[in-house]
């Protein structure tokens, strides 16, 4: 895990009372750092705009992290549901194993970091031989 943010960073932005205890703060920062690490962002050395964007994204994520909404229960496999309203009428929904619903803070954080994610960093790059 890369340490993108610290408790002190978040305290400086949100004040000292954003979590119930020091241990809750440490856990929320650790979870947020794991989330950010999994994005496979480029190296932040000598990249202040990226460092600033990461901190801004983290500040948006922290409230959901503290409330337990950043990493939540995930069901895997093909999920299917069929509901019949009356004889001969039904509605069916099927979701893939990779289906995930993002929280509002996750969507905003991903949007903040999008300039660095769209350049092939953390994404699959398709190489075509011409």
Outline the secondary-structure elements.
Blueprint: H1 7-14, H2 22-37, H3 48-66, E1 79-86, E2 89-95, H4 104-117
Antiparallel strand pairs: 1-2
Which regions contain 5 or more consecutive residues with pLDDT less than 50? Answer: 121-126
Count of alpha/pi helices: 4
Helical residue percent? 40-55%
Largest sheet: 2 strands, antiparallel
What is the topology, as strand order, of the major beta sheet? 1-2
Distance between the termini: 38 Å
SS-based structural class?
A: alpha+beta
CA-atom Rg in angstroms = 19 Å
Protein name: Protein singed
List keywords for this structure.
single chain; 130 residues
In short:
This protein is 44% helix and 12% strand.
How would you characterize this protein structure?
- This is Protein singed.
- It comes from Acinetobacter baumannii (strain ATCC 19606 / DSM 30007 / JCM 6841 / CCUG 19606 / CIP 70.34 / NBRC 109757 / NCIMB 12457 / NCTC 12156 / 81).
- The protein is of the alpha+beta class.
- It has a domain at 7-73 and 103-117.
- 44% of the residues lie in helices and 12% in strands.
- It is built from 4 helices and 2 strands; from the N terminus they run H-H-H-E-E-H.
- It has helices spanning 7-14, 22-37, 48-66, 104-117, and strands spanning 79-86, 89-95.
- A two-stranded antiparallel sheet has the order 1-2.
- Strand 1 and strand 2 form a beta hairpin.
- Helix 1 (7-14) crosses helix 3 (48-66), helix 2 crosses helix 3 (48-66) and helix 3 runs antiparallel to helix 4 (104-117).
- The radius of gyration is 19 Å and the shape is extended.
- 20% of the residues are buried.
């Amino acid at each position: 895990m890369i340490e993108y943010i610290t408790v002190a960073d978040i305290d400086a932005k949100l004040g000292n009372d954003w979590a119930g205890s020091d241990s809750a703060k440490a856990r929320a920062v650790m979870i947020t750092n794991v989330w950010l690490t999994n994005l496979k962002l480029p190296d932040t050395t000598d990249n202040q705009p990226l460092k600033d964007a990461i901190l801004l994204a983290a500040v948006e994520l922290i409230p959901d992290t503290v409330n337990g909404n950043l990493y939540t229960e995930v069901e895997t496999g093909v999920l299917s549901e069929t509901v019949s309203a009356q004889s001969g009428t039904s509605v069916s929904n099927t979701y893939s194993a990779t289906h995930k619903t993002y929280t509002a803070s996750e969507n905003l954080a991903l949007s903040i970091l999008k300039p660095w994610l769209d350049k092939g960093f953390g994404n699959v790059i398709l190489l075509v031989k011409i």
